[in-house]
Amino acid sequence: MKNKREYNYFEAFVNLSKFSMDSAELLCKTLCDFNTEALPAKIEEMHVIEHSADIAKHDMLNRLLKEFLPPIEREDIISLSQKIDDVTDSVEDVLIGIDIFNVKTIRPEILKFTDIIANCCKSMDVALCEFQNFKRSKTLQSKIIEINRLEEEADALYVNEVRSLYKNSNDPVELMVWTEILRRLEKCADACEDVANDIESIVMKNS
C-alpha cells in the first residue's frame, strides 16, 4: 500500500507550473489594461508569485535531500524544477523591464507576445500533468511538440518585430527599450521550451 505521506515529485512539478501560469496571466492582464500608476502594485503581486514559486522549489529540493529512492534521477528533478522556476522568473523580468525603462504605453505587438507566453505556460502545465504517466501516455509527445511550436511562433514574432522596430524608428532610446523588452519576452518562450526539452530527455532516459 502506498504511503499517503509519500512526496509526489510529479505533482510538485505541476504545482511549480501553476506559478508560471499565474505569472503569465498577471503579465497579460497588466499589459492589456496598462496603467503606470497601478504598476508598482502589479510588480509586488508578481514578486509574491515568484517568491512563492521559489519556496515551493526549495521545499522540493529539501525533500530530495532526504529521499532514499526518488522516482527519477536526482539530477533530473533538480534540473526540471529549476527550469520550471526559470519560466516564472523570466515572466517577472518582463514586468520589471517595463518598470525600469519607464514605459508609458504598450505597443500592440507586445500583447501578441504575452498571449503566446500565456499559451506556452498553459501547454507546459498540461505536459507536466501528463508527465506523471509518461510510461503509458499517448499524448505527452504531442504536448511537447505544441510547446516547441509556440516557441517557434515566439521566435518568428521576435524577429519580425525587431526588424519592424529598426525600420520604423530612429530614436535610440525607443530602439533600446523595445529591443530589450522583446528579448525578455522571447526568453520566456525559450524557458518553456527548456522545460519541454527536459521532460523529453527524462522520458527517453526512463523508457
From TrEMBL:
UniProt-listed Gene3D superfamilies: Phosphate transport system protein phou homolog 2, domain 2
A Pfam cross-reference name: PhoU_div
SUPFAM superfamilies: PhoU-like
Family annotation (InterPro entries): PhoU-like_sf, Put_Phosphate_transp_reg, UPF0111_domain
Family affiliation: Belongs to the UPF0111 family.
Name recorded for this polypeptide: TIGR00153 family protein
Species whose genome carries this gene: Anaerobium acetethylicum
